[in-house]
């Protein structure tokens, strides 16, 4: 019975199937909202799914000078790593499938692995546009990783300050339990700057406009993905969609955890609603109102404004606010 339950968690909820459904839903809503704000009709809600299926049916063309094994393995490894993160998230009041004392550290490494897989795939293609794209992807990683780590430290510092339990301070389950007992972290004065910083980290982590410097269709012809086609390209596109959900879910767990009614279906509906609202705030709105950042602007913005917000939260936590 335990084996069947584990398979259910990995393949259905909160694992593969739920991640894909949420990724397609959020991506479809994002495209509709952006179209409406730009006074366009926009695509149907399931257009991202149609695009994925269409790519799967296309021929996979491998560049002549590409390193075939790594070129084809990169999107698969990145997607598996991303879906694995869902198993560490206590979704909708349910306990996480995998829970330990350092969940946030593992998630940080898995998110980095997803970006590294894109860089490796681009490097193995041997294409000049992909080379420019992977260098930009590396700059973007360096840009958002610092504020992201500072946000994690700020969130974990709250549980450490109250409980004094260092090993549990990086546990997502412990953070959710703390919020269930003491209220959502976003309601604390010290956590508001960190929450804003996390909202600003999400679009760059996902690679959405205006922080999509690594792809930049009008400049470097999709950059890191310029030589991908067929099923590998479809997997990369699906990874992007699922990442929108994973980052929204991570924000919900870190700052809105503990908000439950005791009714599973209702809790899931509330969780989905939170993710939809966060997608509008972090993806659709910036996409519609901002022009694409330059590479140096991305770096400067995240190491000054966003990192500064996270540092303010750390200082406020240390002051006991």
How would you describe what is shown here?
The protein is mainly α and 321 residues long. It has one domain (2-318). It contains 12 helices and no strands. The protein has helices at 2-11, 16-37, 47-56, 68-85, 103-125, 128-163, 172-182, 192-206, 217-220, 230-255, 264-289, 295-318. The longest helix has 36 residues, at 128-163. It starts with a helix and ends with a helix. The relative contact order is 0.16.
List keywords for this structure.
321 residues; mainly alpha; 12 helices; 0% strand
Instruction: Please give the domain count.
Output: 1
Shape: globular
How many H/I helices? 12
The major beta sheet can be summarized as: none
As a percent range, the share of helical residues equals: over 70%
**Strand percentage:** under 5%
H and E string:
HHHHHHHHHHHH
- Give the distance, in angstroms, between the N- and C-terminal Cα atoms: 46 Å
Compute the number of strand runs.
0
Average pLDDT value? 86
Rg, Cα atoms, Å: 19 Å
Structural class: mainly alpha
Uncertain runs are: 163-168
């Amino acid at each position: 019975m335990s084996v069947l339950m584990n398979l259910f968690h990995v393949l259905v909820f909160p694992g593969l199937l739920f991640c894909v459904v949420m990724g397609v839903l959020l991506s479809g809503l994002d495209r509709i909202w952006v179209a409406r704000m730009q006074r366009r009709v926009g695509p149907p809600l399931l257009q991202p799914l149609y695009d994925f299926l269409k790519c799967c049916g296309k021929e996979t063309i491998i560049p002549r000078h590409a390193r075939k094994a790594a070129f084809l393995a990169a999107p698969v490894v990145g997607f598996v790593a991303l879906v694995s993160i869902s198993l560490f998230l206590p979704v909708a009041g349910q306990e996480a499938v995998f829970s330990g004392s350092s969940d946030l550290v593992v998630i940080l490494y898995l998110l980095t692995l997803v970006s590294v897989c894109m860089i490796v795939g681009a490097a193995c293609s041997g294409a000049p546009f992909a080379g420019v794209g992977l260098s930009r992807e590396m700059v973007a990683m360096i840009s958002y990783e610092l504020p992201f780590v500072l946000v994690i430290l700020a969130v974990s510092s709250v549980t450490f300050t109250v409980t004094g339990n260092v090993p549990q301070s990086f546990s997502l389950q412990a953070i959710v339990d703390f919020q269930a007992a003491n209220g959502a972290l976003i309601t604390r004065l010290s956590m508001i700057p960190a929450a804003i910083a996390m909202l600003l980290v999400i679009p760059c982590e996902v690679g959405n406009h205006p922080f999509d410097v690594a792809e930049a269709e009008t400049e470097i012809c999709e950059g890191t993905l310029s030589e991908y086609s067929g099923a590998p390209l479809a997997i990369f596109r699906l990874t992007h969609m699922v990442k929108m959900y994973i980052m929204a879910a991570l924000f919900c767990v870190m700052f809105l955890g503990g908000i439950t009614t005791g009714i599973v279906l209702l809790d899931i509906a509330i969780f989905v609603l939170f993710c939809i609202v966060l997608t509008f705030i972090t993806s659709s709105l910036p996409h519609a109102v901002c022009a694409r950042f330059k590479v140096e602007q991305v770096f400067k913005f995240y190491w000054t404004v966003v990192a500064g917000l996270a540092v303010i939260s750390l200082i406020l936590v240390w002051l006991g606010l």
